Amino acid sequence: MSNGNNSESGESRPSNFIRDAVIDDLKTKKFGEATIQTRFPPEPNGYLHIGHAKSICLNFGLAAEFGGKTNLRFDDTNPEKEEQEYVDSITQDVHWLGFNWDGLHYASDYFDQLCDWAVKLIGDGKAYVDDLSADEIRKHRGTLTEPGKDSPFRNRDAKENLNLFERMRKGEFPDGSRVLRAKIDMASPNLNMRDPVMYRILRADHHRTGSKWCIYPMYDFAHGQSDSIERVTHSVCTLEFEDHRPLYNWFIQQLGIFPSQQMEFDRLNLTFTLLSKRKLLKLVQEKYVSGWDDPRMPTLSGVRRRGYTPQSIRNFCGAIGVSKTNGTLDLAMLEHFVREDLNKRAPRVMAVLRPLKVVIDNFPDAEVDQVDAINNPEDESAGKRTVPFSKVLYIEQDDFREVPPKQYYRLSPGREVRLRYGYFITAQSVVKNEKGDVVEVHCTYDPATRGGNSPDGRKVKSTIHWVSSAHAVDAEVRLYDKLFTVEDPDRTEEGHDFTANLNPNSLEVISQAKLEPSLASAMNGEKYQFERLGYFCVDPDSKVGNLVFNRTVALKDSWARVQKRS
Ligand code: ATP
Ligand code: MG
Question: What residues have CB less than 8 Å from 80, skipping those under 6 apart?
Fold first, then answer.
């Protein structure tokens, strides 16, 4: 899939139709001597999600590859839904992903220019003020099989339209009472060309322009012209805008301005995941999650808190490429890229989530043996550390069975196993509580097996992790599962919405995990592999003395299984 053109970081740049078009346009000098200009145009009405990452990587990736530039432009034409908080989170998230924009712009910077252009179109007889209500406009619009009907106000003359539009702008009419429409073709087979609305009357405070305006341009009248003002050569967007392209071109042609061109690619969809700001907002507002940055959210702030690295997301976006048809990718594929990147960079440590006490009867009472442990077998430069080994340890409850089932090779009475980096131990007896649960396992160790190998070549069938009880650091560990129980969270029974598909077990909190002491001063955001368990990172709620870890992703490679299945 890779076209051989790999950047230093190893991110692949698969060939695709958009890239091919760029190469072609540069070859034919479609935009003169200039190189390409792209833009990422989020509406600041929510936090960015993984789907946006695909668009960001595409826009910035293309510009970087061809020596062009990328603007960050806020498409802020819906004041009721937009807020400064979202602007701030979006700039932070784009930076976090690893990209720096050239120009930082807002569609609202162009409100004066857009208004002038509206006046020009009215003067040219290409736009008119319509007094029909929104409902009547909809009824006049026709359907895919029937042409629309002209509004009775369609043939107002330019002078009257200019006067009415000026009065709309001045605030003489109530909200929703009139609109400005482009005069195109009520019989067009493309519904977007049936005299689309350009401006509406709306008294709403805008997060940047305040109360300056009481008319706001529609997306279609703002987007292409904003591209054109910024001399965007390739305006890439998702496929649902394909039907808007003729309108995008119409405005640019009528105004005779820089010919930006729109190109559409497939939206990212992931199984078990919703990628829509509107729906994610509902989860936040109705408190199904703790906020936009809840580690179960597919937002960039959520996955950042969860422990995903920007590199892993960029690698994922590079690998999936772009196409002309929408599909849904397996969430396991994204997790595969997260694991792959963390495997290279995350130091290994030992942590016990569900502790079971192990007493080594023949180990000297007060002795502490500092054993050597390798920080990262994938990265020699990460070096080594020592881990204290002593008479009383914790292991995972899952790593001991009083009566081992078939093919269970971990610790059980009479069975010898290896304690990672430590010694071979053999379980001898158990202590139970009044309910009959094993609460303590008494073992013996073989001093000759220090470091984890037996000089006589004796083999054991399993290696388990452990933490010294006296040295252990307590921590809260938050284990996350999928936020939804079904692959397509939008598919519900009649009368329900996606919240019916929420997974009631998507968060499990372990309040008393035991960690090796090297983690005592772990800092917010640091990422580790807890050996045999998965990748974990320090949550912002964490404090020294009160550590909190998030499980980023478990170790088991579900992607490999997925691949095997297909
Ligand atoms: P949402 O439905 O989540 O609000 P949107 O498309 O309305 O998404 P915008 O803020 O308008 O969000 O999106 C900014 C850019 O990101 C657009 O060019 C849009 O096409 C792109 N984008 C949004 N969602 C996805 C996605 N799932 N996959 C790829 N690109 C996306
Ligand atoms: Mg949108």
Answer: 202, 204
Nearest-atom index, ligand 1, CA of 44:
10
Distance (angstroms) between ligand 1 centre and the Cα of 42 equals 7
Domains of the chain: 17-265 (3.40.50.620), 277-309+320-345+475-565 (2.40.240.10), 351-472 (2.40.240.10)
Mutate to test the pocket of ligand 1, among 48, 99, 238, 240 (most ligand atoms within 8 A of CB): 238
SS3 177: coil
> In a structure prediction context, what are the per-residue pLDDT tens digits for the chain, which is 566 residues long?
333 333 444 455 556 899 999 999 999 999 988 899 999 999 999 999 999 999 999 999 999 999 999 999 999 999 999 999 999 999 999 999 999 999 999 999 999 999 999 999 999 999 999 999 999 999 999 999 999 999 999 999 999 999 999 999 999 999 999 999 999 999 999 999 999 999 999 999 999 999 999 999 999 999 999 999 999 999 999 999 999 999 999 999 999 999 999 999 999 999 999 999 999 999 999 999 999 999 999 999 999 999 999 999 999 999 999 999 999 999 999 999 999 999 999 999 999 999 999 999 999 999 999 999 999 999 999 999 999 999 999 999 999 999 999 999 999 999 999 999 999 999 999 999 999 999 999 999 999 999 999 999 999 999 999 999 999 999 999 999 999 999 999 999 999 999 999 999 999 999 999 999 999 999 999 999 999 999 999 999 999 899 999 999 999 754 455 555 55
pTM of the entire structure?
0.94
Considering only CA atoms, which of 123, 113, 26 is closest in space to residue 65? Answer: 26
Spatial distance between the Cα atoms of 399 and 532, rounded to a whole number of angstroms? 11
Question: Which residues, 6+ apart, have CB-to-CB distance to 19 below 8 Å?
Answer: 13, 62, 65
Ligand 1 atom closest to 54 (CA): 29
Mutate to test the pocket of ligand 1, among 55, 73, 87, 313 (most ligand atoms within 8 A of CB): 55
**43 C-alpha vs ligand 2 centroid, how far in Å?**
6
The answer for residues whose C-beta is within 8 angstroms of residue 445's C-beta and 6 or more apart is 360, 362, 363, 422, 423, 424, 425, 426
Q: How far apart are CA 508 and CA 515, in angstroms?
A: 18
Alpha carbon of 51 to ligand 1 centroid (Å)? 7
Q: What residues does ligand 1 touch, defined as CB less than 6 Å away?
A: 41-43, 51-52, 54-55, 75, 237-238, 267-268, 275-278
Q: How far is the CA of 56 from the centre of ligand 1 (A)?
A: 10
Residue with CA nearest ligand 1 atom 16: 52
Residues near 532 by Cβ (< 8 Å), separated by ≥ 6?
464, 465, 555
Residue 46 CA: nearest ligand 1 atom is 4
